[in-house]
Amino acid sequence: MKIPTHRILHLAGKSLPLHETYDMGALTGRHKQLLSICPVEFNGEGYLASGLFVVKGTVKGEYTLSCSRCLAELERSFNQSFEERFDLHPEQHRFNEDDEQEDIHPVHENVLDLTPYIEQQVLLSIPFIPACEDEASCRANMLQEGKDWSLAREEEQQEKVDPRLAELAKLLKKDQ
Questions:
Q1: What are the backbone dihedrals phi and psi of residue 69, each rounded to the nearest 5 degrees, phi first?
Q2: CA atoms within 13 A on the CB side of 128
Q3: Confidence of residue 60 (pLDDT cuts 50, 70, 90)
Q4: Closest CA to 132 of 75, 79, 60
Q5: CA-CA distance, 81 to 125, in Å (whole number)?
Q6: What is the DSSP string of 20-62?
Q7: Cα–Cα distance between 88 and 2 in angstroms, integer?
Q8: Where are the domains of the chain?
Q9: Which end of the chain is more exposed for a tag (fewer CB within 10 A), N or C?
Q10: Is the pTM of this model over 0.90?
Q11: Tens-place pLDDT, residues 86-120
Q12: pLDDT tens for residues 128-156?
C-alpha cells in the first residue's frame, strides 16, 4: 500500500482507514520453510500524533510451512498486531540511535510504502522451528531411510570390529 505524504499531512486530526490485500508469494524464496502463502490482509488505520504518522492494525493470513522434523506440510493461520511510526520530515528531526525513537522510520520520498513493513511482520510470524502439533503423528511421518542412509536403532546396531584388530578380538573372545 502506497500512501502519498500530502494525503497524510491533510488529515487534520482524523484517522485514515487502511485496508489492503497483499500478494506475498515472493516471500517463499526468503524463508526456506515457507512453502506457500495465501494473500495477506491488512486492516487498520493511520493518524498523525506528535509529528509522526502512526499506523496500527492487524495482519491476517494463512501459509503452508514445512515441518522441521518430518517435512510434512503444515497449514497455519496468523493474526499479528501491527504498529509502525513514520517521520514524514526526517530532515527536521535528529534522533540519537540510542533514543527510544529508533523504531521511527524516516520517509524520504513523497510516498509511504507499507509493503516492506507488512512483509517483515509476516516473516516474523513464522515460528522459528515449525513442527506438527501432534508429536506422535510427526514421528510416524518421519523418514526412516533414504538413498545411502537409514535410521539405526540401538537394538539394531551390531558391533563392528576393525579388520586390523579382528585377530585380537578373536583372542579376547577365546579368553572369556
A1: -95, -50
A2: 0
A3: very high
A4: 75
A5: 10
A6: EEE--GGGGGTSTTEEEEPPEEEEEEEEEETTEEEEEEEEEEE
A7: 14
A8: 2-149
A9: C
A10: no
A11: 888 777 665 555 555 568 888 888 888 899 999 99
A12: 988 888 877 777 777 666 676 666 666 55
